[in-house]
Amino acid sequence: MKVRTEARRNVILEAAVALFKELGYERSSMNELAKRLGGSKATLYGYFASKEELFRAVVQTVAVSHLAEAAAELQEVSETATLEAQLMRFGERMLFVLTNDADALAVYRMVLAEAGRSDVGQQFQESGPTEYIRTLAGFMEAAMARGELRRLDPHVTALQFTALVTAETQRRLFQANPEPVSVEEIRALVERAVEMFLAGATPR
Question: What is the DSSP annotation of 62-105?
């Protein structure tokens, strides 16, 4: 029963992603989703109590779950991995999701489009970025305690690092059909970001 329930939840999420991509957040509704799924609205509400809860699940699934996992891995300090190597690994995983995952890109675009008209932007922040930024900040704080980074606000430091990683790819949000970014290109982008970050964040 548990397997069937999880499978059904995944089917709902897939349909919700398609619905949000097509209609945007405000125009999408639980009624329309139930109609497309061919089931009852009561069944749908059995999985997600509201459109807001459904949206948070979509954000977690397609936009930030990989980033949360990557940030969590940073907490597993390795004796052989340098700070630079750990930042490179996180940055590469982050950029791969943001540049080559069509569903994730669609969610980010939807949030940008709707943020000025509703609380969807706040929901987005609470559903994903806040979580992995908090974890990344914990990693930065630990690096500061080891003397690998300057003593600064770890939360701000985490935000600055992610901003550098995404600096050269932000334009993709405004392109109709951006070309995929190769693994080699992603590595080069992240290398430049990590180099710039460490130039300003390491002890002087």
Answer: IIIHHHHHHHHHHTS--SS--HHHHHHHHHHHHHHHHHH-HHHH
